[in-house]
Amino acid sequence: MKNLNKNYINGEWVEWRGDTIDVNEAATGDVIAKVPASGRAVMEQAIESAQSAFESWSETSLDQRIKVIEQLHAGLKERAAEIAETVSREVGMPIKLATGIQAGLPATVTGSYLKMLPDFPFSEQVGNSEVQKVPVGVVGCITPWNYPLHQVILKVVPALAAGCTIVLKPSEIAPMSAYILADILDGTDLPKGVFNMVCGLGEDAGDTLIKHPAVRMVSFTGSTRTGSLIAHAAADDFKRFALEMGGKSASVILPDADLKAAVKGTVNNCLLNSGQTCTALTRMLVPADLHDEACELAAEAVGKMTPGNPLEETTRLGPLASAQQRDKVIDYIKLGIEEGATLVTGGPEAPDGLEAGYFVKATVFGNVKPGSRLAQEEIFGPVLCIIPYQDEKDAIRIANGTDFGLSGAVWSGDQDNAKKIAGKLRTGQVFVNGGAFNPLAPFGGFGHSGIGREFGKWGLEEFLEVRSLQL
Ligand code: NAD
Is 244 a catalytic residue? Predict the structure, then answer.
C-alpha cells in the first residue's frame, strides 16, 4: 500500500522522516507496515490547514457536499475487497465477516447519510425566528482499532456533511484502512485542507489534537480511560465532545425464552471480532435453574467457532489485534479462575497449533459473581460470563449493575414482556429477541459508555451548532 510513511495534510501526502510505529499482522505477529509516529509540529500543521479551509467549506452548498460524499461512497464500494483484507490482517477479523462488516458497513453508513441529507432540516422557522444549524468548526476525530474504518466513517461523513473541516488521528494499531480512505478522498472534489490525517501515538499526536484551541470539537471512540482525558481537556476551553467508549453489556434470557436460540445468539454476538466489539454481550444472565443447561449450550456453540487463519473463507474466529490485547485477555481468564468462577470451556493457553500471532481460546465462565472484576471490567476478548439470577427484578439489578451502559439484549417468548424489560435497562440500545441492527437508529452509551450519539440524524447533529435569527 502506498503513502504509509506519510501524513495527509492540506490535500498533499507529506513525507514523514521521524520515528515510526510497527503495524503487525494479527495472525502471525509479522510487521506488515510502518506508519509515522508523528509529533506535535505535524499535528499543528494539519490543524492549521483545517482551520484555513473552514470558512469556505462551511459556506458550500449541501449539493456540493453531497457530491463529495457520493464520490466517497463509490470509492468505498470499489475498494471493498482491499479494505476487507487490510482490516482482516491488522485486526484479525475473519475475511468473510470483514467483507460484510469492516468493508460493508462503512459503505452502508455513507449510503444512509446520502439518503437522509437532502431532507435534513438545516434551517427551520419557529415563530418569528429562523433557527439555523451551522457547523461547529474544526473537528478532531480520534478512533480505535477494532472497527477501524467504520469508526472513522461514522465521524468523517457527518462532519463533512455538516460543513466542518477535519483532522483525523486513526488508531496506531490498525491505521491502514484510514490510508485507503484518505486516498479515496484525495481522488474526490474535496477542497484542499478540508480533510487531514495525521498518524501517531495518543499521548503525542492525539494529545496535541485534543488540546489545540482551534479544534472546536473532539469526536472520539475508544476506551473510557482516554475518553475521560478528552472530557477533561475539552473543559479547559469549552470544546464540544462526543465520546463512544467501552461496555459490559448484558444479555438477559428470561425463563420463557427459547434457551438454545438465545444462548447461540448471545455467544455469536460475544465472539464477533474475537470479542473486540464495544457492544459485545459479554454477560449472559440466565435463570438460576437453567444455569447448567445454559453452560452446556454455550460450550456447544463455542465449540463450533474453531479459531484459525482469518484470511481463510471458512474461519469464524480470528486472533486478537495485538500482543498487548492478547496478554490482557489471558490475564483476565486467569483472574476468572482465581475469583472462583467455573471454567466451562477455553482457558489461558494458546489454542493448539496457533502459538504464533495473537490467538486466545474462546472461553466461557459459569457461576460468575455479578460484583467480581470478571463481571465488571471490559475484557475486550472472546470471554463470556454466565451469571445466574433469581427473578426478573434480580436480573434487571444485575444487568444495570455496572458503570457501563452501551448495549444489551432481552430474550423472551413474550415480545411485550421482553420490551417491558428492555425499557428498564440503562443502556443506549437493547436488542429484543435478536432484533436487527439499524444504521439509521442512534448509537451511543449511558454512564461510562459515552456521551453523544452516532448514526443517522443524531450523528449529524453532533457536528452542528444552533443559531437563532430573530426576524
Ligand atoms: P484507546 O482509548 O486506547 O485508543 C483510542 C484512540 O485514542 C487511539 O487513536 C489512541 O491513539 C488515542 N489516544 C490514546 N491516548 C490518548 C490521549 N492521551 N490523547 C488523545 N488520544 C489518545 O482505545 P483502544 O484500545 O484503541 O480501543 C478499544 C476501546 O474502544 C474499548 O474500550 C472499546 O470498548 C472502545 N470502543 C467503543 C466503541 C463505541 O462505539 N462505544 C466502539 C469501538 C471501541
Answer: yes
